[in-house]
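ok here's Peptidase S24/S26A/S26B/S26C domain-containing protein, seq below lol
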Amino acid sequence: MAEGFKARNLSVLAYANGFTLWHYITPDVAADVDTADYFLEARDMLRVGDFIIANTNRDATMSGGLFVVASSGANGVDVRDMTAVGTSNTD
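and the structure came out like this:
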C-alpha cells in the first residue's frame, strides 16, 4: 500500500531561471509516485518542466531516477513516467 506524498521528503536542490531541481525520497514504488495528483499538495511549488530526482521504494530495493513535471496547477499535478538511473550493476 502506498504511503502517499509527504512534503517533508521533497526538497529543493537548485533553482535558476524559473526552473527547480528537486529531490524526493519515498517508500512508494515509482509507479505509485507517477499516479496523477500524487504531488497535489505541492502544486503551488511545482512548475511544468521541473525535474524531480527521486529515490523510490526506499524500504525495499531502492530505485532512483528522474520525473519531469508535465502539468501543475488548479487542475492537478502530473509527472511523466520515471526515467530510471543506474538500473544495471555488472560486477
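fwiw The CA atoms of residues 18 and 84 lie 25 Å apart. kinda neat tbh
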